[in-house]
Design goal:
Layout lengths: L3 E4 L3 E3 L4 E7 L9 E6 L6 E6 L6 E2 L7 E6 L4 E6 L8 E7 L10 E6 L1
Parallel strand pairs: 2-10
Antiparallel strand pairs: 1-3, 3-8, 4-5, 4-9, 5-6, 7-8, 9-10
């Protein structure tokens, strides 16, 4: 089964930017619509953005206008460019298929300080 390795998380000040990467062990084109999720302490994992094979990504309202998701099929890699970060964006970020049906990776930790 496909496996994901997320990276790029860090401690950043409020207002800063980060770019997350997610490398899949197989072809992401064949996986269809992909997605970024995040999990904060005490809360369930939540959807952040979806990235179709073709077409524009979808973003949840809380990140719209600040985050930009993309995919590079040749590298089997997803990206999440995050700008104007706030403490509310703190969490562990994961990538997966849109329905979260594949095995979850370890995620990458993002901490935004006030």
């Amino acid at each position: 089964q496909v496996q994901f390795v997320e990276s790029g998380g860090a401690l950043v000040q409020s207002g800063g930017s980060l770019t997350l990467s997610c490398v899949a062990s197989g072809s992401i084109f064949r996986l269809g619509t992909m997605a970024w999720f995040r999990q904060t302490p005490g809360r369930q994992r939540e959807l952040v953005a979806t990235i179709p094979q073709i077409g524009s990504p979808y973003y949840v309202d809380s990140v719209k206008g600040r985050f930009s998701a993309s995919r590079e099929h040749a590298k089997n890699t997803l990206y999440l460019q995050m700008n104007s970060l706030s403490p509310k964006d703190t969490g562990v970020y994961y990538c997966n298929g849109f329905g979260g049906g594949y095995s979850w990776g370890q995620g990458t930790q993002v901490i935004v300080s006030p």
